[in-house]
Amino acid sequence: MEKLVALCKRRGFIFPGSEIYSGLAGTWDYGPLGVELKNNIKKEWWRAMVQLREDVVGIDAAIMMNPTVWQKSGHVDAFTDPLVECKVCHERFRADKKEEITSHEKTHKEKVEWTAPQKFNLLVKAYLGVVEGKQSEIFLRGEITQGAFVNFENIVSSTRVKIPFGIAQIGKAFRNEITPGNFTYRSREFEQMELEYFIKPEDAEGDKWFEYWKKQRMDWYKSLGMDDKKLRFRKHEDNERAHYAKFAEDIEYEAPFGWSEFEGIHHRGDWDLSRHNLSYVDEGEKYTPWVIETSGGVDRSALFFLFNAYSKEGDRVVLKLHPKLAPIKVAVFPLLANKPDLVSKAKEIFDSLKPQFMVAWDDRGNIGKRYFAQDEAGTPYCITVDFQTLEDDTVTVRDRDSAKQERVKVDKTEEYISEKLR
Ligand code: GAP
Q: How far, CA to CA in Å, does 264 sit from each of 72, 268, 281, 300, 332?
């Protein structure tokens, strides 16, 4: 964990939010490599969930919504965590996080007493309006989900969707988490990627689509290189299900801090549509559809893809990210920075690849160090222009995982890289 956190800071994946002012708990800023990784995760998700499907459409709803949305959705009353306070130092914790409570108790010499658990609402409040004292209180969305429900009628009337169909969305959500922690794992501002899939309100349909989406989502993580031995489903117990869920299962990853949820598959039944008084007419028959939801965290996925990719071979740290997720796809080096012929040829190749891929340039230090630096950033391919290039117009392409090199014709490099990334 510490090694990955240090690598994220050193190489520009993830920085603590507002760091120069001592930070803001539960917030993180993504650096040049981190933003590429997150964008790649979102791009692959959108491709799989929207672009390649005929039954799903995308939206991008507002973060600020009429507060009635959150009353109707049940979040004002029920989006709570049980909070307890240490009577010695008044620090607050989630009552259901036994390990955090035990480790806090160890920080005091005396026996710690706790207050009785109180319900603590996680919605983050904001104030809108220009006249001081007359501003109206709103909530920043605690889940991106409600945007799909409030637009249900808009989507049905403006597109050709028919049940079963889905509405997909990616965006920021905000929660006043009692104890943010484990790096980005529990943050107060984070991004979700969600599908709300509307089906006929029948048990057999519910079971079928729940299993279908479980499999789709698990397969997606595996297809992007997550180790299936580190992945599992976990069914929610009756006492841990969210207020909207008829039943729920999480996809968990075995992180250094234990098995941890990073995507939830929820059977929301008709909870949301009936609370918002929405229905659907299917060839003359009117009913309230049920919803199967897949709700993944972009930040948690990014973190777990990083854990999954981290490997150390001797002194060499390699991030074995799937090439589709790698922030930089290819790095281009002139073998020597003081040979103008090598530099100008390498620059030509760098410029020709830029429109297609995220490409890095490096001409500092020796070539071995440059390879190591790209390995640590997860770059799957490095192209080196050497003296042979000037003779036969070929370059070496080095593969990050095997460290093997192949000679490729300069005019075939784009095709070669594209083929590898397909
Ligand atoms: N719409 C359903 C929903 O929001 P959730 O299980 O509360 O369900 C879904 O959240 C996903 O959002 C989680 O699996 C996780 O990946 C991400 N998430 C939730 N809370 C988070 C937090 N505090 N920090 C980072 N990611 C979080």
A: 22, 11, 29, 12, 40
- Beta-carbon contacts of residue 79 (< 8 Å; ≥ 6 apart): 70, 121, 122, 123, 142, 243
User: Does the beta carbon of 264 sit less than 6 angstroms from any atom of ligand 1?
Assistant: yes
Distance 232 CA to ligand 1 centre (A): 17
- How confident is the model over 93-119, as pLDDT tens digits? 999 888 899 999 999 999 999 999 999
Helices 2-11 and 367-377, packing angle to 10 deg: 110
Decide whether any atom of ligand 1 lies within 6 Å of the 175 Cβ.
yes
Q: Does 308 contact ligand 1 (Cβ within 6 A)?
A: no
> pTM of whole model > 0.70?
yes
Residue 318 CA, ligand 1 centroid: distance in Å:
29
Hey, which of 189, 295, 299, 304 would you mutate to test ligand 1's pocket, going by the most ligand atoms within 8 Å of its Cβ? 295
Q: Whose CA is nearest to atom 16 of ligand 1?
A: 297
Q: Residue 36 in contact with residue 328, Cβ under 8 Å?
A: yes
297 lines ligand 1 (CB under 6 A): yes
What φ, ψ does residue 45 adopt, rounded to 5°? -65, -45
Measured CA to CA, the distance from residue 221 to residue 209 in angstroms comes to 19
Q: What's the CA gap between 367 and 54, in Å, rounded?
A: 48
- Mean pLDDT (10-residue bins), the chain, 422 residues: 96 98 97 98 98 98 97 95 93 90 93 93 94 89 98 97 97 96 97 98 98 98 98 94 95 97 98 98 95 98 98 94 98 97 97 97 95 97 98 98 96 96 89
